[in-house]
Amino acid sequence: MKKSVFLGALTIAGLAAGAAAAGTLDDVKARGTLNCGVTTGLTGFAVPDANGVWGGFDVGVCRAVAAAVLGDPMAVEFVTTTGQTRFTALASGEIDLLARNTTWTFSRDVDLKFEFVGVNYYDGQGFMVPRDLGVSSAKDLDGATVCIQTGTTTELNLADYFRSNNISYEPVPIETNAEAQQQYLAGACDVYTTDASGLAATRATFEAPGDHVLLPEIVSKEPLGPLVRHGDNEWADVARWTLNALITAEELGVTSANIAELSAGTNNPEINRLLGTEGELGAMLGLDADWAMKAIMAGGNYGELFEKNIGENTPIGLARGLNAMWTEGGLIYSPPFR
Amino acid sequence: MTMLDDPRMSTPNVAPKKGFKLSQLIYDTRYRSITIQVIAMILVVLGLYWLVNNTIQNLSALGKDFDFGFLSQPAGYDINQRLVEYTSQSTHGRAAFVGILNTMLVAFLGCVLATFLGVIAGVLRLSKNWIVSRLMAVYVEGFRNVPLLLWIIAIFALMTESMPQPREFKVGGDASMMLADSVAVTNRGVYVPGIVFENGFLASPVMNWVILGVILIVSLFVIRIVRRRADVVQESTGVRPTTWYQQLALLIVPVGVVMFLMGAQLQYPYIKGFNFTDGIHLRNSLIALWLALSLYTGAFIAEIVRAGILAISKGQSEAAFALGLRPNRTMNLVILPQAMRVIIPPLISQYLNLTKNSSLAIAVGYMDVRSTLGGITINQTGRELEGMLLMAAFYLALSLAISGVMNIYNNRTQLQER
């Protein structure tokens, strides 16, 4: 807690010692690193490589924000969080940004006092079963044992889905994806359910991915996105517009390959505004003029991040689907940079 | 001014009538202790004030209030092991209650098994048989010196990884049930036969068990009266009447008759679909937590028992031997009753440890109060402070209750001063 509050309470006991916390943006700049909450390890989304360097789709958001604010995509302190610890970590200020496949829901936004800054993956809850179980629909799962990560929206969706279909199940609560994987492969549960992207990512790490099938039912909407604490609008703006910068970059064809060339100035004013060669957008956020350029250079634009980490050419092999650009029939859309 | 008025001339054993000086608060031994206590008190109050103020400040900074209303909201999640009726539409308060019962179940089972293991290991560790005493030493040192969490996870992993899946029990599978097809050991837990009541007195099966429990307690009470009467006869005539068949009948007949009237039947588990149905499902999480807690705490209890026995002077057992008592009667009638006085106070704290350690349930997904109220509920509602306070209050109440009951027992076993 704040030391100033302690001293204030001692000296002017009885008076409200209102030591207003400094903005997160200033804290991050002063600290020189961004504390970013990620999963304990989900291939493609957030996982450390052999050298202990974190990489992945969610990690890409953390690095982009760090690059935008601090100019260095590597200036990120990754804090691993489970489904249960993530919100406390964010609310208590242990982390500045949570990028952990977290579903944007009403109660999290309003009641838990968080601010979702956008959606970086439109997902839905699915089910994975071993192929030799011979199950072809989630409706056939009456009486099955289901591995489920506790403290997630999927836990609630699962209860709703089975209840509304009037079938029973036995939940096996687990903490992390790795634990779920071990339980599922040992056959301690018949089914593993989580976001479909997470299932695909988990299956990709199996020795024999072909022995497991994803059932056709997608039982919920799971818009996953990064979030920050409620009430610090400046910081929320930084995170929101960094994500939007990545999306806009894909829309405008700005990639990590051509960004150096484009940043010399183009005749497209929106690219110029995005890359800071025109207008004052960076200063309005309290950042350098080339903040978006640094964010895009950190790991590429939205499409590049997607393809590199979870796209069709990776073992996870997710199609863009809903996560294609709005111009290509998807839902990924950024408000204009103006 | 006369000489008599001069204070220096007054007799030395009359205290000088001086005004109270502030420095006396520190240098005068009569006031110093009060001064120190007042300062300590002020510091404690300021500390508490800071804590509360800090909490209020930070809650308001986060825009949160302090409200227990969430307990009456629907929980929305399912719990696998429930001793009372619960669905995902029940309230968070109900979920907390289910968790509390699960905590109490594993704590009770753990305390019973830990005491059993501890007493046996403690006595055997003093055995003159070299192998037996060494084996017990290995058990005690092995379990006492490895973190409990590792044992919980190790037993859980052993059960999960090495036991057959339920579907291997199907026709043509590799696994088969044990004990005349009544028990199935699977990687999801152990399925044992359960007792169901065809026409119970009450609709809820739990209440029928409560009825049986009450009858059993009454039976035990009557058995005690029978024993007391036998003691009286023995003291007046020197001959103890044979009462074991009366005691046995009192124990079995009333419960048996009521169970017959309620149509009690053994229900065997059988495989159906994905899992076994019917019977009682002892989940891996419960078994791992129960065994690990018992083995771990049992090792500590063994040392307490050993210390208690060693505290009894050798003369006691020599006197017993001189009277012709055999070794195991010496242990049961002479040594252990005296050793209990030494054993019980540290035993209480081991029971408290076991109860509180049961919150490690989270490691294997056992749905105790830490997992329901302190885990999922807090996470879904964002009421960390309220949930943690409730949990602390529950563990405090449970611990105080255990230590209260054990203290009553302790007072009864203490040496009566005559």
From TrEMBL, chain A:
Entries under CDD domains matching the protein: PBP2_BztA
Secretion signal, residue range per the UniProt entry: 1-21
Keywords of the record: Signal, Transport
InterPro entries (UniProt xref): Bact_solute-bind_prot3, Solute-binding_3/MltF_N
Pfam families, sorted: SBP_bac_3
Residue ranges of every copy of the Solute-binding protein family 3/N-terminal domain listed in the record: 33-262
Family: Belongs to the bacterial solute-binding protein 3 family.
UniProt-recorded name of the protein: Amino acid ABC transporter substrate-binding protein
Organism: Octadecabacter dasysiphoniae
Automatic annotation (TrEMBL), chain B:
Entry superkingdom: Bacteria
Main location class: membrane
Parts of the chain that traverse the membrane: 34-52, 95-124, 136-159, 206-227, 248-268, 288-312, 388-409
ABC transmembrane type-1 domain segment(s): 100-406
Membrane topology, as annotated: Multi-pass membrane protein
Keywords: Amino-acid transport, Cell membrane, Membrane, Transmembrane, Transmembrane helix, Transport
InterPro entries the UniProt entry points to: AA_ABC_transptr_permease_3TM, ArtM/GltK/GlnP/TcyL/YhdX-like, MetI-like, MetI-like_sf
Stored CDD domains: TM_PBP2
Localization annotation: Cell inner membrane; Cell membrane
Family under the similarity heading: Belongs to the binding-protein-dependent transport system permease family. HisMQ subfamily.
Name assigned to this protein: ABC transporter permease subunit
Organism expressing this protein natively: Octadecabacter dasysiphoniae
Highest classification ranks of the organism: Bacteria, Pseudomonadati, Pseudomonadota, Alphaproteobacteria, Rhodobacterales
